[in-house]
Input
Amino acid sequence: MYRVIFFDLDDTLFDRTAALRGWVTSQLGSLDAATLAWVIELDDRGRRPRLHFAAGVIERFGMHRTVCELASAFPSELAHHVEPEAGVRETVERLARDRRVAIVTNGGAAQRDKLQRAGLADVVEQVFVSGELGIAKPESGIFECALAWSEAAPGECLFVGDDPINDIAPAAALGMATAWLPRGPWVGSQPPGLTIHSITELARYA
Ligand SMILES: [Mg+2]
Output
């Protein structure tokens, strides 16, 4: 049993693409499938720099906002469309009964809104947000902050995430066990320790 479980947030504990679809509908109305796919591709699961995303959206759809306005408002607007995924809260709550559970996430203040909307804010013990710490995944510093908080050895920790580069590789490099939740193809050099297809599977492994 792992003494500590760290979770990524976007696309690990909720479906970011579903939230993005909700945002698109609220801002741009109902789009055809190809145009919606274009927006999803532009966002690149949150990896696209926010200003580039905003510039692309405004160039294509001509919203009545400046690029900077959209770029700064987008994270909290997106957070409003986050919905809990079936079974996730129950699983995390169960895991948190006899071990430490924390979030390690890239982003700013909106990450805490997302956690709230996903129904998880009261079941995790600690949240490490890159924008608050000034260091982002995949840099080791944010993982080291989390490890120091946990007071556990890396081998006693499981890191769960969807991103091979930002989550799995750096956690494994520090000696943590890893569980990958695929939302796209595997692109890392070394395979993840575990591959899971739903957070609920973790109840078996942890
Ligand atoms: Mg993620």
